[in-house]
Amino acid sequence: MDYFNGYDNYLVIGAARSGIACARFLAERGKKVKLTDSKSLEKLLSEEDYGLAGIKDDPRIDFVFGRNPSDEEVARSGLVILSPGVPPDIRACVCAAEHGIEVISEVEFAVSFFKGDIVAITGTNGKTTTTYLTCALINAAGRHCFEAGNIGYPFIDHAGESADSVAALEISSFQLSMLKYMKPKAAVITNITPDHLDRHKTMENYIAAKANVFANMDEGTLILNYDDETVRNLASKARCDVKYFSLKSRDTDAYLEDGWICLKGIGRVAEASKLKILGPHNIANAMCALLCAAVYTDDMTKVAEALVAFSPVEHRVEFVRELDGVRYINDSKGTNPDATITAINSFECPLIMILGGYDKKSDYNEMFDLMQTKDIKHMFIMGVTAEDIIAVAEKHGMKNYTRVESLREAVEKSRQTASSGDVVLLSPACASWDMFDNFEQRGRLFKEYVNEL
Question: Which long-range contacts (CB under 8 A, 24 or more apart) does 267-272 make?
Answer without folding.
Answer: 269/300, 269/303, 269/304, 269/307, 270/304, 270/307, 270/308
